[in-house]
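Sequence only, no structure available. Ideas?
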Amino acid sequence: MKSFEFCVPTDILFGVGQEAQLPAKLGSYGKKILLTYGGSIKKSGLYDKLKTLLKDFEIFELGGIEPNPKVESVNAGAAICKKEGIDMILAVGGGSTIDCSKAIAAAVYYEGDAWDMVLHMDRITKALPIAVVLTIAATGSEMDSVAVISNTKTNEKLPLFSPLVLPKVAVLNPENTYTVSPFQTASGSADIMSHVIENYFDREKAFVPDALNEGLLRAVIKYAPIALEKPSDYEARAQLMWAASLALNGLGSTGKTFTWSCHYIEHELSALYDITHGAGLAVLTPKWMRYILSEGTVDKFCEYAVNVWGFERGDDKFALANQGIDATEAFFKKIGLPSTLAEFGIDDGQFAIMAERAVKIGDLRNAYVPLSKEDVVNILHMSL
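Reply:
I predicted one. Tokens follow.
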């Protein structure tokens, strides 16, 4: 296990009615709030509920944030904050809204276009405080210091890292996820699993975080089908919501190298084709697993098959490893997610460009199994 520093001071308010604590929690940061959201919170009634709770605050709004948040929304939000002297951002939604809000929080103190800040993260020196009301279990952005922003002009989708954008407060009320559509519930579940899998498959021996990762995977495998069958099942929604937060708050990667593969490949897909991130990961992850299975990785895949999926050990390690991979692919199909890129209408026309970018941006030559441009192209072809 490698040395590490772990500090995640986000104040988590988990459970029914925890929104009621927001006025007291946010009051110390000031009275001017930028409320950011996508669109569904007005249909669900959450928008009106929060406006009533925060009646003593001066609320400004940035709505319509895209599923893959664009830099134009970041610039628009930063402009509002600068003009109105905003004290705090309240992001109400899922990972896209939260990610956009994180970038806004930093862009307020950056002179120039926010995309330049994404490209030069070392220039982030300050950020507005952020609070979150989560409405979907997926990205874990409510409890980490990462944002992913898209630039449609350059067809780029890049991560932004800074401890300054870690949310101060996060309300996790599972009831707010009852109205999430089946497709988005399934996609969110695949995103959770992918975060954990990226942490799990690593060269470092780290028993404790891997035991946590195995438990999180089992939780999603158990509760995602229940949430799909019974959208208002509180226990299922609660387990998925907490699993999403724990999957990416750093616990599962303590003592590990934290060099991912599938996410950087998928970012190229959603940058070019604007597909749902979790659904893209559901296609790529089993193919990546099959591609990297070898004498050097088979033991880890056997652990995965036994400890996550419950298969019994036998004499043939590769047969066992493939059982785990097959189970992963079958699970994604079971919860209604696509298994090929063709289902998105994606062909191989941009594979070379996407592969080159993924290797460069994700440093995939230093991943769990090093990947070249040619390797990524092969994985993409396997995904057609």
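DSSP finds 15 helices and eight strands in the chain.
Hope that gets you unstuck.
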